[in-house]
Design a protein that fits this description.
By secondary structure, the chain is an alpha+beta fold. The chain is built from 3 helices and 5 strands.
Length: about 140
């Protein structure tokens, strides 16, 4: 039975598409810090994933381009915990969160125009500000 990560109701990523890489983590860890590989990096090939549509791949590539390399592989790392298993869980949760955020439908912006009264208030405010500065200039030049 293939297990999936449910991103959205229409998007499921099978665990078989995820790769994990471990390395030595910086920070606290006592004697283990120099010998155990607790830092976990989750790798997901966005470009070659059969679970995503071309449109979804484009959206993910655009939204998460700073976390992707030149080959289109998404990198998510975790080294918060001293436990490799816990870092793997944290990296997976972060991966889900990132994909949900990237694939979340965006609301279209409704173009609006400033009302006549708001334009008049703005111009009146600018006139007052200009007058205030003009008065300041006149007092300083008299001294």
């Amino acid at each position: 039975m293939t297990r999936f990560i449910q991103i959205l109701p229409s998007v499921r990523i099978p665990w078989s598409e995820l790769r994990f890489r471990t390395s030595r983590s910086g920070g606290p860890g006592g004697q283990n810090v120099n010998k155990l590989e607790t830092r976990v990096e989750l790798l997901f090939d966005v470009v070659r994933s059969p679970s995503l549509t071309d449109e979804q791949k484009d959206v993910i590539s655009r939204e998460l381009k700073t976390r992707m390399d030149a080959e289109g592989i998404l990198h998510v790392t975790s080294q918060r915990s001293r436990s490799q298993w816990e870092n793997r869980q944290l990296a997976t949760a972060r991966f889900e969160e990132l994909l949900r955020g990237a694939l979340k439908p965006r609301k279209k912006r409704v173009a609006t125009r400033a009302s006549q009264s708001s334009r008049e208030r703005r111009l009146e405010s600018k006139k007052k500000q200009g007058l205030k500065k003009k008065i300041r200039r006149m007092t300083h030049s008299d001294e």
